[in-house]
Amino acid sequence: MHHGSAQSIPGPGAAIGPYLVVGELGRGGMATVLEVVHRDGGEHRALKLLLPTSRSREAARRMEREFVTLSRLDHPAVLRVFDAGLYQGRPWFVTEKLVGQDLRDAVESWRDIPPAERYRRAEHVLAQVAGALAYIHDQGLVHRDVTPGNIMLLADGSVRLMDFGVVKEPGAELTRAGEVVGTVAYIAPEQITGGVVDARTDLYALGAVLYLMLTGRRPFNARNLAGYLDKHLNRRPRPPR
Question: What is the pTM of this model?
């Protein structure tokens, strides 16, 4: 942890907009996620707050873009957002609080179940994520980062697609060659070469996620970024048996 960063993360009881902090749910490289409760309504929600160490304008822009994108979307398998604002000059936004596990952890827990049950669960997740992608593609958007870490399986059996921070909007400029956007284990060839990114980019990534769900392993493994990029461009994965 960076020295001094803990003091800048609001503790239990701190007020952020109309919310009171309950505690920290998790932390990534760019943001912390806090459990909050609405002061008037009493609803428990999740609040994503840019870390004080992420002072870059790009990090703030990415969070603001994610909120604007999510606030325009309304689909049962897309994360719901409610409010946004600034705390000590850092952007935050509030989403539904999800109770469950991400698909990475879920796939680990599937190792000991019979194949037929694994396939049933994979089909269930695939159908919900594909539905969410069809919906966002109809809006002219491309997610660009469909990965197991961005798919949540909820306790009630529903699924949520999350992390819309690198979404490509209609008419947005092409990703420049060499500017890799997305998680490299699931990245489509055109994201590597700087080609046209469209709905097919997300379907490639979803296919890689399906491969993981069915086999318990990624389509490709490599020691470094260059290795992953080479395999996505030039190799075929092992048949999933």
Answer: 0.86
